[in-house]
Amino acid sequence: MDDTSFIRLGVFAGVFVTMAALEAWLPARRAALRKRTRWQGNLAMVVLGALAARVVLPATLAGVAMWAGDQSVGLFNQISVHPFVAVALSMLLLDVAIYWQHRLFHAVPLLWRLHKVHHADSHTDTTTGLRFHPLEIVLSLFVKAAVIILLGAPVMAVLIFEIALNAFSIFNHANIRLPQRWDDRLALVLITQRLHRIHHSQHSRETNRNFGFSVTWWDRLFGSYTPRAAQSDEMLDIGLKEYPPSSSSAGILALLSMPFKPGKTKSD
Ligand SMILES: [Zn+2]
Prior knowledge:
- By secondary structure, this protein is mostly helical.
- The protein has 13 helices and no strands.
- It has one domain.
- 61% of the residues lie in helices and 0% in strands.
- Helix 1 (3-25) runs parallel beside helix 8 (155-173), helix 2 packs across helix 7 (134-151) and helix 3 packs antiparallel against helix 8.
């Protein structure tokens, strides 16, 4: 294991254990299914997703950035800017690309089939932030690789971005609730747990809002920001109506096969 894998795994484990401990201590909402039932499927998905990514792109995204640098391909490998500016702008542009990717996964029926596996979770907690279909992971990997090549993103930007994206996903899915005043202040910059739960609402006017994973700026800029749901956070209907809480739809085989079964093809 190289140094960067060690750091990635360390940050992942640190954020996961911290958020899982917080939500076990002070849970915001009660889950309809037992934790063990949901966690088995959700955690199996993260392992399969990581394996699929390694099989499809053994070089990793940092390797893609290194290749672009060696070949002098992409914007920041062509123009001369301060390395700090190149890193900061690359991270921002990668983040906005992920925002638009998320919107596309909601808007395009074939992509929604994959992304709905994430939304079909009847509860949100740290493991929901890791529950993505391996095909969505692979498609997202191609999108990120393309953006990295176009930008000529520095390796450092890619490493920080990947670690941050993973950490933010665990953070904003955690089943905790900050006091409203803190939540509103933090929401000036970051997507909070309460804001992201609005995105997991069963109601389309709310599901198609708050697409950001990290900062709230993209939702504000592109008109998809909603600071409050119609229902209170305690009463919000989470998940998808077509997948009511059931242990039979929470297992790994049900999750893997979900995109290929009949079902609604839009996120509303
Ligand atoms: Zn979504």
